[in-house]
Amino acid sequence: MTEAFSTFDLLQWMDAETRAAFKAAARVRKYRSGQIIYMQGDTGAEMYRLLSGSVNFTVNRPDGRELVFALFQPGDCFGDSSLVDDDVRPQTVEALTDLEVEVVGRADFNRLRAAHRSFDDALLRSVTRQLRLVCAFYEDANMNPLSVRVAGRIVSAALSFGAQHSDGLRLTIPLSQTELAAMAGASRQSVNKVLQAFQAEALLRVEYGGLLILDLEGLKARMTLPD
Q1: Which GO terms describe its molecular function (predicted)?
Q2: How many helices (H) and strands (E) are present in the chain, helices listed first?
Q3: Contact 53, 96 (CB under 8 A)
Q4: What is the reported pTM?
Q5: Cα-based distances in Å from 86 to 41, 43, 81, 90, 106
Q6: Structure confidence at residue 136 (pLDDT)
Q7: Is the Cβ–Cβ distance between 145 and 206 less than 8 Å?
Q8: How far apart are CA 130 and CA 126, in angstroms?
Q9: What is the mean pLDDT of the chain?
Q10: Mean pLDDT of 189-195
Q11: d(CA 156, CA 176)
Q12: What's the rounded Cα separation, in Å, for the pair 39 and 55?
């Protein structure tokens, strides 16, 4: 049987021995929806691997503006960067749903690095993938119009958290227009105008507290600029 891995799952790059050592070092912890796992600026003492549920990453500006940087799903690992460079947490991580995580403390993290080359290789691959994500995010924010950015954020959420229903594709996580605006780096009012245009094209339907996706392929087509 082939194990399914997510985008930021360190285990996908580990050999079997290292995976077993990671599992032995980890302990399971539960969080409730809306609970903060750690705050931007906190000292990092643990890394996490999602077993169930989802989290979002936000960066808060001194002027009060907030940017939702990423949504993580089961299998994804986070919190490891502060254990590598001993710097503070670069984002705030909040539980979007009730969830369970595997937690590895700093001492066990360092032991894994010292004893298993495969663990260090996995960390390097994860950092590289995160850097690629940041570069893509920067390019998107600075070169694409808002409609393209909004379509991209919706499609990304749908591919990770979409569940098929008779009337369309529904997200299994809450995603308000305010949160979508924070993901796209725009005002809620501007994002609402884009959503209304998408609704007029029968790409989606705006509902209370979320979206019903009617035409995923159509939204994918809106992620690119016309020639």
Answers
A1: DNA binding; DNA-binding transcription factor activity
A2: 8, 12
A3: yes
A4: 0.79
A5: 12, 8, 8, 11, 10
A6: 82
A7: no
A8: 6
A9: 89
A10: 94
A11: 15
A12: 13
